[in-house]
Amino acid sequence: MPAFRLNRRHLPTALGLLAAATLAWYLLYSQLLIRQMRRESEVHSRIVVRILSGLNDPSANAPTRTLIELSTEVQDLDFPIVYTDVDGFPAYTANLPFQADVNDSAGAVRVLEYARTLARRNQPIVEPALGTIYYGDTPTIKRLRWIPWLQVGAMTALLIAAAWMIRHNARTERERIWAAMARESAHQMATPLSSLAGWVEILRLPQEEREEMASLPAVAAEMEADLDRLEKVARRFEWIGRPVQKEPVEVRPLLRVLERYVRVRLPQLRRSVELRLDVAEGVAPIDGNGILLEWALENLIKNALDALSAAGGGTIVIEAESPSDRTVEVRVVDDGPGVSPEVRKTIFDPGVTTKTGGWGVGLSLARRIMEDVHGGRLYLAPTERGATFVMHLPAAPRDTSGDADGGPGLGLRARIGLPWGGAGTDREARTEEPKPESAPEVA
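Below the sequence we write its predicted structure tokens.
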């Protein structure tokens, strides 16, 4: 028979069951102690009754009869007692854990040894004219000693189970995010790859037919754009688990890249979806990473596209402004069906999705990029209609020294691969890009 092996995924459940069993045992144990204490209280009450009865009994043998009855009640208390006379000889015992005859020398020696054991636990009661009384603990006290250990064991099991559950949930979340990222990246890479395959087929055509469809410079420009797109998708994964380099990112060129990417795919939706940009004049550049910012915004726009596609069409407006010199605010607004109140509180949690077959990681990833990497904020603003996702990001100082040679936005094109401009300029910019040194990491 193969040896039993506990799956690591089942350890949190096993620890949780162990903690629950310990707590259940603790409850049962507490009830047992309560029952035992009630029994002892009953015996104590009977002792008081015996004493009062003996005091009120006028008969001559009342004291003797009362002492005999009290001796019986002491036996019911079930705690050990050893009484030695003034000469140190054991004269009376009760509730000993063993059988011993005090009239026998061997039995007397054994009782005296047990009396010394009781003396180490509890201080003996010494009466000069009577002798010494040694006593032990009641069963209730013995059982009470286990209560702290039961509590410590239950708390330890609960803490271990909680730690395993947190670790298991974190690992599950990472696996879900990785799977979704791989799936999304494969989807994004499929588009430029199919486009490249089409251009290759065109290049294989005879020159006369090829010239009628597209010139060589046009084909080269389009293939360059597809290669830039592939490189951008691949480079997103380079930032996972690595320090992120942050530079001033111009908002308008960044949004234009997204607009061009989305507009190419609008006809595939077969819905009436309109996309508009509303960028205020003088918007400060964002202090961030262009690749990751585009990734986060792309997820927000895709979320809006999915909502409008299911609703039969609508409008998406991407707005950007600078509320202050230190802040840039970007809003992705759509007039779709909106988000239900039940989902609003958990919409950024991993795995939360309203789409059939969705992975529920796009908004979670966008929030991580905005908050963990860029120190900003991403939230869903309350609206009467549609959905409005608001991003607050830190603004960068207006320093265009990095784009002095190539005009505004050249540094951004070098980072995320803008589709316009000469191929040689893009390649040179990417070659000279510095390696990331120290900055926040993408979780």
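The radius of gyration is 41 Å.
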